[in-house]
Amino acid sequence: MNIIEIAKLAGVSKSTVSRYLNDGYVSEEASEKIKEVIEQTGFVPRRQAQAMRSQKTNLIGIIVPKISTETAARVIEGITNELSNAGYEVLIGNTSQSIEKEFDYLKVFKNQVDGIIFMATEITPKHYELFEQLHIPIVVVAQKVKDYPCIVHDDYHASKDAINYLIDKGHRSIGFIGVGEYDVAVGIERKKGYLDALEEQKIEAQSEYIQIGDFSHESGFNLTKHLMSLPKPPSAIFAVTDNLAIGCMEYLKENGYKIPDDVAVMGLGDIKIAAYMTPGLTTVHYHFQTMGAKSANLLMQLIQSGKESSKNYESNFIFNYRLIERDSV
Amino acid sequence: MNIIEIAKLAGVSKSTVSRYLNDGYVSEEASEKIKEVIEQTGFVPRRQAQAMRSQKTNLIGIIVPKISTETAARVIEGITNELSNAGYEVLIGNTSQSIEKEFDYLKVFKNQVDGIIFMATEITPKHYELFEQLHIPIVVVAQKVKDYPCIVHDDYHASKDAINYLIDKGHRSIGFIGVGEYDVAVGIERKKGYLDALEEQKIEAQSEYIQIGDFSHESGFNLTKHLMSLPKPPSAIFAVTDNLAIGCMEYLKENGYKIPDDVAVMGLGDIKIAAYMTPGLTTVHYHFQTMGAKSANLLMQLIQSGKESSKNYESNFIFNYRLIERDSV
DNA sequence: TTGTACGCGTTATCAT
DNA sequence: ATGATAACGCGTACAA
């Protein structure tokens, strides 16, 4: 079922049908006949053909590390809502945390979509190389990127505020559970926030209090075990993600420590589970869905501006956060 | 950058380049030149053009009620992993629980993708009408559908087993928190499981124990409040989703009831939070990700079989479940 | 207002 | 082995 068949059935030429579809000038009688035929047949113009002709795909590609992650899902929720309102459709690239797949999608989406939203963890030179080869705008979410537009949370201050909160509550020995520095936002920024907060309060950072693992749950568990086996265990533990904090709480609870009386625990991100833990996890709320919406709007704006690339985009967006006091501190 | 330019740069015709790209016979020297040019330029064939010519889009459309829902995210995770291994890309339609948007996506995807996976809640006659108009296979997930392939969990028996488990634990007065019957799987099947389990154990169902709300968290909270204000409150409560069960637990905990001593609580679905509640929520595990993977495989199989529609597909898939004993019963 | 003819990038057919 | 050409479905400049 194509536009020619519709034209035949309506007794007009395909140009007339095309005009009808695209708000062009069509006489009333032709208009009605076409309308009727289209309703009967349920005809919808093929988007691939439209894209071919117009050089606009009306498609946006999203690349995410793992779609079943709560944070990714929330970002995507924000993105898709905005985009579908604007008539865009969304192609999704789930990389399962594989950097190779990130590269693949960056290549595959290249001339298949009008723009890309890239939810990043680690940014390597190869990434920049691929960004260069893009002839469409790209917006990076969750990691700072040089020369390209990006949307991030203020990881440094969020972390710093969290530590200051712990210090305010009287803690002087604060354990830190972090992740590798390949992830700048989570691995470096949040650690720096921790270190700077201590320094400003004249508390000497102790290297044995600083534990680095991966993003897994078990990592939170095991590193807490290690912290608590120290000669002088910390009175509070800050984990750079809620997921880690939950692993941390598990260890403490299983081993009879009272939270927050024996050990206070603080996370970052405010995933849904945080509210349901016992005690409720004190953490920092991040606005992932709003962030997704913002990235979508920014991307659409870049597309409409007609630029071939979003390189050298001047301003970035740093999202605010909100400290959530619950009962684990 | 298109195939013609590559051809020019390599000093051959575009047909030769096309053959090079598609495993055709090309002389070694031509081959090498083309390879070189493609590497330099980073050329990738435009998928829209390929689709145009081949009548295959290599795209699959997924329609989900709400992407940021844990169950949906897990289903999508399963789907995308399977599909991307097979070289398909995924177009996502997030309907935000709007039935109108479901219709929209069913129309829009119609001649834009090679097949559709539809995660459904409510199936109306209008849905069937749109299914009819499809000229591509569709697989329905999470709801039974007449004449079309679908992949579901065994809601009836899952629910029944849950109730039997409660009965085994000595409960005779079991409250039920359900949802509207527009959702057949959750609203009807799970309720039937409850009723039949009681009947088989010669326990008379009491209408005041059966409370119906929506899917929200608050619903679980409020309906529990109502159940507990009954002259003779139940000794156990079964909620048809974990989300409702969690709302239920919240009410009980806030009001000083001990779980499971005063009231036992059981859910269904085994969302992540369930494991972290205190006490851990006893529930029934559903295999959402595997379900997604299965639906993807089935759809690919249908596509490869070359049928224009998946209507009258004979066999459906009913997934098993697993009872998870934790501490709320 | 309507219709004709062409082009978008690719693949398939057919000669050469 | 290679190249010219048609075809896919649609939009649009141009002619009528």
Structural account:
Chain A is an alpha/beta fold and 329 residues long. The first copy, chain A, has 3 domains: 3-43; 49-153 and 289-319, Rossmann fold, CATH 3.40.50; 155-286, 3-Layer(aba) Sandwich (Rossmann fold), CATH 3.40.50.2300. Chain A contains 13 helices and 12 strands. Chain A has helices at residues 3-10, 14-21, 28-41, 47-54, 70-85, 99-109, 125-133, 155-168, 184-200, 217-228, 242-254, 272-276, 288-304; strands at residues 59-64, 89-94, 115-119, 138-141, 150-153, 174-179, 210-213, 236-239, 264-266, 283-286, 317-319, 321-324. In chain A, helix 11 (242-254) links the parallel strand 8 (236-239) and strand 9. Chain A starts with a helix and ends in a 5-residue tail after the last strand. The model of chain A has no long low-confidence stretch (mean pLDDT 95). The A-B interface holds A 1, 42, 44, 46-49, 51-52, 57, 59, 66-70, 73-74, 76-77, 80-81, 84, 89-94, 96, 101, 107-108, 110-112, 133, 246, 272-273, 276-278, 289 and B 1, 42, 44, 46-49, 51-52, 57, 59, 66-70, 72-74, 76-77, 80-81, 84, 89-94, 96, 101, 107-108, 110-112, 133, 246, 272-273, 276-278, 289. Chain A binds a DNA duplex (16 and 16 nucleotides) through residues 2-4, 12-16, 18-19, 21-22, 24-27, 30, 45-46, 48-55.
